[in-house]
Amino acid sequence: MSFLKPDGTCFHYYTEVFLGTGTNSIVLLDGSHALKIPKVRDLESMHEEHRENQEYVNDVNRMMLEWEKAVYLRVGRSDGIAECVNISADGIRLALYKRGDLETYIKSEAGVDRSRKAGWILTLIKTILHFHSSKVLVDDIALRNILVADDLSLKLIDFGQCYLMPLDADINMASDNGLTTQADIFHLGCVIYSIVIWERYECNLFERQWVRPLLRDLPNVDHIFCRDIIRKCWSAEYSSMEQLYCDTHESLEHVMLKVDTVVMTDMNSH
């Protein structure tokens, strides 16, 4: 199978180092960076009867990457977003995060302490708040779209499905065919739950025609860390990311400080 780079150069799986491939894009190793390009099939290598449909798919994939470029330009730099080195006709050049995505990390690692989990959850809340403050609904909030940096901080990626709103719009009143602020908060709740129990959990509202499941049909959170946050995310008790942040940042920072204080006390006792 052969593909085309944005400059028209043909390449194959065996001629490039693939870091990842999705429905609409391909991520290639580009020196010390990652380069995200649209997933464009080489029509010359295809039978003629398949070319017309593939040409349409190619155009959609090109459009999706241009949309993602616009999202990066809108939100700018933020600690919780994968570093965008530059945007050009070549694609989106990103910092390289060798630890991979959080879903894979959870599968391969025994776990992290509660302080680290609290820090991760607070980072994700702040980052989604930054998107909403920039008038962007994220949509695809999932473990696979969160990278783990060398210092174990988290970085969001993959914004091709985001919804860019006018800068003067009220994001908390917006709906893009079912995608809303509360849908983002619900999906964030699933990610928080996954981090707490250290196991992948996903409930995609898009696959449910945006119908929120009842709490009784979701996992029981009665006896886990962050249970109130998760429950409120799932039950639409937060009307905005600002409300979620205000309700949680002090308690999460307290957990981080409390655990770190215990660790320092134990070290000093020795």
Chart the SSEs and their pairings.
Layout: E1 2-4, E2 10-12, E3 18-21, E4 25-30, E5 33-38, H1 48-75, E6 84-88, E7 91-95, H2 102-108, H3 114-133, E8 136-137, E9 146-148, E10 154-156, E11 163-164, H4 181-197, H5 227-234, H6 241-269
Helix pairs in contact: 3-4, 3-6, 4-5
Give a brief description.
The chain is of the alpha+beta class and 270 residues long. The chain has 6 helices and 11 strands. It has helices at 48-75, 102-108, 114-133, 181-197, 227-234, 241-269, and strands at residues 2-4, 10-12, 18-21, 25-30, 33-38, 84-88, 91-95, 136-137, 146-148, 154-156, 163-164.
What sequence of helices (H) and strands (E) makes up the elements? EEEEEHEEHHEEEEHHH
Shape descriptor reads globular
Strand order of the largest sheet: 3-4-5-7-6
Terminal residue distance:
60 Å
Biggest sheet record: 5 strands, antiparallel
Beta-strand segment tally: 11
How large a portion of the residues is in β-strands, by DSSP E? 15-25%
Decide which structural class fits the backbone.
alpha+beta
What is the residue-mean pLDDT, rounded to a whole number? 92
Number of helices: 6
Unreliable stretches (pLDDT < 50, length at least 5) are 262-270
Our Rg estimate from Cα atoms comes to 20 Å
Instruction: Assign a percent range to the helix content.
Output: 40-55%
Labels describing this entry:
single chain; 270 residues; alpha+beta; five-stranded antiparallel sheet; two-stranded antiparallel sheet; 11 strands; 40% helix; disordered C terminus
Mind explaining what this structure looks like?
The protein has 270 residues and is of the alpha+beta class. It is built from six helices and eleven strands. Helix 3 (114-133) packs antiparallel against helix 4, helix 3 (114-133) runs antiparallel to helix 6 (241-269) and helix 4 runs antiparallel to helix 5.
